[in-house]
Amino acid sequence: MKSIKFFSDLLVLVWDDGTESVIQYTALRKTCPCAFCSGEKDVLGNKYGGDSIINSAVTVVRYEKIGHYGVQFFWSDGHKDGIYTFEQLKALRS
Questions:
Q1: Full strand arrangement of the beta sheet holding 83-85
Q2: Are the beta carbons of 27 and 78 closer than 8 angstroms?
Q3: Which architecture, in CATH terms, is 3-91?
Q4: What is residue 51's predicted lDDT score, i.e. its pLDDT?
Q5: Cα separation of 55 and 57, whole Å?
Q6: What are phi and psi of 91, to 5 degrees?
Q7: What's the longest Cα–Cα distance across the chain?
Q8: Where are the beta strands (DSSP E) in the chain?
Q9: Using CA atoms, how far apart are residues 90 and 34, in angstroms rounded to an integer?
Q10: Which class for 80: exposed (0-12), middle (13-18), buried (19 or more C-beta within 10 A)?
């Protein structure tokens, strides 16, 4: 990832190959990969969690790059547990 640009309701990720991903904050927050938001499965395949309600006015307060593979976003609703891989973020591009 080359850069991240923040706007009022979306972010733009510029990738090393020059392509861009434009992602609405609400769409990004709804796909949070943490166990609380996305749920998690036990050894028997039963899913627990994943029922969080997202405020439509949520924004990104700040972010941190995680190694060479992802980004952690800190949200205006106080959530910060999800680590979004670059692959996941590219899949969300519009």
A1: 60-66, 70-75, 83-85
A2: no
A3: 2-Layer Sandwich (3.30)
A4: 67
A5: 5
A6: -70, -25
A7: 43
A8: 3-6, 10-14, 20-24, 40-41, 47-48, 60-66, 70-75, 83-85
A9: 18
A10: middle
Residue 8 DSSP code: S
pLDDT at 94: 60
Burial class (CB in 10 A: 0-12, 13-18, 19+), 1: middle
Residue 93 has pLDDT above 80, yes or no: no
Burial class (CB in 10 A: 0-12, 13-18, 19+), 62: exposed
Residue at token pair 């395949």: 45
Residue type, 48: Y
* Tens digit of each residue's pLDDT (9 = 90 or more) over 8-63: 999 999 999 999 999 999 999 999 999 888 888 888 888 877 766 777 789 999 99
Band of the pLDDT at 80, cuts 50, 70, 90?
A: very high
Closest CA to 20 of 33, 3, 44, 45: 3
pLDDT at res. 44: 87
